[in-house]
Specification:
With about 400 residues, the protein is of the alpha/beta class. Bound molecules: ligand V47.
Length: about 400
Amino acid sequence: MSDSMEYADTATTLDPPRPTRGARSHMPTASPGPEAFLHPGLRPERLSDPTFRDPSLETIAKKLSRGERLDKTDGLAMLATPDVNGLATLADRRKTELWGDQVFFVFNRQINPTNACVLDCKFCDYALRPSNPDHYAMSIDDILGRITPELREIHIVSGLHHRWKFEYYVDIIRQIRLAFPKIQIKAWTAVEIDFFAKISKKSVEEVFEILIDAGLNSMPGGGAEVFSERVRQELFRHKIGADEWLNVHRIAHQMGIPTNSTILYGHIETMEERVDHMLRLRELEDEAPGFLAFIPLEFQLGYSNLRARSASAVDGLRTVATSRLLLDNIPHIKAYWVMLGEETASIALNFGASDMDGTILEEKIAHAAKAESPIGVARDRLLHLIREAGKLPVERDAVYNVVRRYPKES
Ligand code: V47
């Protein structure tokens, strides 16, 4: 009997219940029963491990238990699997091997010194052209006024201002360091570092030396978008491409600066491009280790008209889990609550994520693109989201030194 005939013959067992006299159970009883309605991609009867319903996940589980590296085919299978629970189990297993039930967060604040930008990326609603009179540019006092001494990390990312000199960007770091010597500064993406090298006519190494001397501790992972030349041509053709982005991070790692990495997903990229992106990051980490975390950034639709709908929560969860399993050499995967939404981010803690970023306090990039999450959250809210997921909250600093372990219950 073909699959379609099985469905046709048994469809009546799932008709909505009609009123009957007296008590009646609505549990499915008629033959052939619910096993006739399994997803066609799932064949649990052919699998030896009842954890999985998708044969490709069982193959992946076997590879992992033999210590084998996953490849592109595995990545594509994970991003497409209908067995979302099986994938979560694998990713959570790997995360638990590394970190137990700990989930990390930092008491931090984002600062975006200017939204004026000489680039014109089609996905970005935050940046404004320099000719747009609505752009803003913060003074050093504006920036210092946003910082309080209890913060552990300042995360700075900016537009590429048409008039600011490299010295101003350096001064931002230096003045924060002088005023708040204990706060760690995670600043400037590879896109900005490349821009500084160009406007100052210095090498990337010289730029880093000057920034380290001013007080830089680490680098965020933004600006990577998707390492696909096709997507770059479509969406951000004036921005640096994969080779340049990876090279800035390579140099940072070689100079001892820890960095993060990101992917912007859920716009025009293909699943293959997502997997290729992750594999290029893994390759760089093998060659020049230094990544602390990978952050899947869910594209916020904003005013861009690139897509009718955002990526689904399940797509986001599969992307988190896939990155945990493919990026076997990057210690942390972040569930970035700003873009996933707080609830999905909390669920992602059972899909391989080991970090929730932090309090953030003032997020502008996703919110310029109509993100529905709050613009910042209190420490207590993060504790709640982590505990709700059955995990143990650990407050960290910018480079993952433990600040405080919190009890399971408040
Ligand atoms: O590079 C721009 C992205 C990034 C949109 O390293 C958008 O710890 C979604 O990189 N929808 C900046 N994303 C943010 C970033 C980041 C965030 C949190 C933690 C870390 C870290 C880094 O935001 C940009 C770009 O890829 N972006 N527009 C948008 N509409």
